[in-house]
């Protein structure tokens, strides 16, 4: 998505070969017009999947997910993230390991809002190792629903998450894919080539 | 706002005389069409204030704040909330006490995104004791910016936050004001009468 790539080049900051800071428009300060365009783009790419709900994870996924859900005219759920959660039988819960924070947290979704047979679109701001996306996918599958797609704003294509999700049979669409980062340098990768599964 | 009051009556659950559960459309599952209408309503009420940025707090404030910012065509910032934060000189930080969770957390905003002279609109999902709103207001004032308004989706008018904020000279607009809650009963209050300050 050219608009997003331009924004990353203008306002993203490569802090190292691993870390891209985009807190100027995505995960602290948010550009709402860009989010609306991102929502339209995800909706266009996944409309044929007959999505019944969008699922994301707090907090940085919420803005792009809400805009996508608005375009698709379906509800959006944001999974709650906590360091450790008392297991409760009214929640679907999965453990998610964050390599960035080097800690495990638990993500949960109320059983009231996810149903068997639903077709769920996962939206998240970043994809690196795929831990969060796999956690959300397991929650969807616990509910007997289907993961109908995974929409990612920025994929670090030099980390294994995207390939692992694709190998697991999920359709992953990333609006920007980063091939490599260096101090002051950001190189984009081509879009992933999809097979419908 | 009639649309919001109707939604609260249809899908809100009064768990006690203190707790209104609205996780079906506001703070776990989110109705994006309602959020877009809420954004339009806040934008209409505050447009004359020449807002330069919207400020909210993660996570439940993000959806209504992003929609408001989209309508006003300004950036939105969500303050980060943490149990205890290493004080960092690149952040504005304030302590906020949550009566619901009975714990103190720290909210912070990067100094990169708030400037002296800006006119900031605070948006949040709930107003009860006003702790979060006062914390955000102190952050804005630390930056030398002006709190140009406070937009609240649901105000618990039986708790003191709204009156305290008004007494402190802030313009507070709440789209739904709850006069009282009981098991299975939700009673609305009239809108606050404003004096321009």
From TrEMBL, chains A, B:
Gene name tied to this protein: xpt_1
A Pfam family that the UniProt record links to this protein: Pribosyltran
Residues at which 5-phospho-alpha-D-ribose 1-diphosphate binds: 128-132
Gene Ontology annotations of biological process type: purine ribonucleoside salvage; xanthine metabolic process; XMP salvage
Compartment annotation: Cytoplasm
Entry keywords, A to Z: Cytoplasm, Glycosyltransferase, Purine salvage, Transferase
Pathway: Purine metabolism; XMP biosynthesis via salvage pathway; XMP from xanthine: step 1/1
Annotated NCBIfam families: PRK09219.1 (NF006671), XPRTase (TIGR01744)
Subunit and partners: Homodimer.
Family: Belongs to the purine/pyrimidine phosphoribosyltransferase family. Xpt subfamily.
UniProt-recorded name of the protein: Xanthine phosphoribosyltransferase
Record's function text: Converts the preformed base xanthine, a product of nucleic acid breakdown, to xanthosine 5'-monophosphate (XMP), so it can be reused for RNA or DNA synthesis.
Main location per the UniProt record: cytoplasm
Residues in Phosphoribosyltransferase domain copies: 48-156
Residues reported in the UniProt entry to bind xanthine: 20, 27, 156
EC number: 2.4.2.22
